[in-house]
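Hi R.,

As promised on Friday, here is the backbone we talked about, encoded as structure tokens. Could you run it through your design pipeline when you get a chance and send me back a sequence?
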């Protein structure tokens, strides 16, 4: 289902306090003390990630928007036709009766004051209604119509989350490992990235958190590959 594009950027408060972040960072980075500026920067990054994720979730599907625009166009066009009963050309008895009665009642309004002024108001409304109706039609058919790969887009934020973890590892001079220990039995998934992600995800809404270590590992693995590919594409050509 196609959806309207997001506009602008937003942020919201993470699920834990900023003061908690310093303590949480000490788990994967026990030998590093992060100053207030770095902790605040990381906290704002988490807030921005949550805001972007919420914006993506709130995107409207185009179908109801298109239907509303088409209905508005139809209603405005119908109103314009009904209020054209006093114009030249072939007019139905209903159009003549509706326009005449509306014009007479408008003329009784002290702010309008006469049949001539009422007629001018009706003509002005008709022109505006026709123009807005046409604009609604264009807007309706200008909406995205192709299928939206929304499932993939909702996971794109994890690339930025992984980039945050990598920046923390770099600051702490830690190798951001992620690997499978084939001899570890029931818990073969290992690495600093996995441990750090598990800790930092506690600042995210539950809907954003990985449901399991397996899912978390796959997200990290995919995001690392994506970031590496982006780095190669952005590096100067030899």
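Update: got your reply. Pasting your designed sequence below so it's all in one thread:
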């Amino acid at each position: 289902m196609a959806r309207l594009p997001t506009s602008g950027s937003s942020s919201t408060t993470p699920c834990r306090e900023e003061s908690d972040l310093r303590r949480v960072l000490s788990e994967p980075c026990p030998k590093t003390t992060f100053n207030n500026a770095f902790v605040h920067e990381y906290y704002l990054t988490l807030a921005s990630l949550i805001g972007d994720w919420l914006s993506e979730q709130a995107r409207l599907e185009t179908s109801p928007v298109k239907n509303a625009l088409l209905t508005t166009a139809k209603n405005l066009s119908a109103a314009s036709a009904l209020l054209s009963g006093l114009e030249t050309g072939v007019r139905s008895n209903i159009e003549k009766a509706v326009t005449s009665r509306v014009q007479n009642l408008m003329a009784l309004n002290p702010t309008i004051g006469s049949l001539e002024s009422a007629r001018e108001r009706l003509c002005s409304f008709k022109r505006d209604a026709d123009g807005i109706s046409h604009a609604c039609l264009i807007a309706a058919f200008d909406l995205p119509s192709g299928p939206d790969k929304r499932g993939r887009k909702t996971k794109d934020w994890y690339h930025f989350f992984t980039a945050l973890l990598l920046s923390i590892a770099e600051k702490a001079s830690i190798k951001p490992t992620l690997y499978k220990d084939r001899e570890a039995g029931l818990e073969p998934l290992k690495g600093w990235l996995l441990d750090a992600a598990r800790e930092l995800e506690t600042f995210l809404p539950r809907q954003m958190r990985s449901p399991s270590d397996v899912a978390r590992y796959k997200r990290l693995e995919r995001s690392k590959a994506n970031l590496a590919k982006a780095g190669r594409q952005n590096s100067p050509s030899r």
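One thing I noticed while checking it: The chain has two domains: 18-59+150-232, 62-141.

Thanks again,
M.
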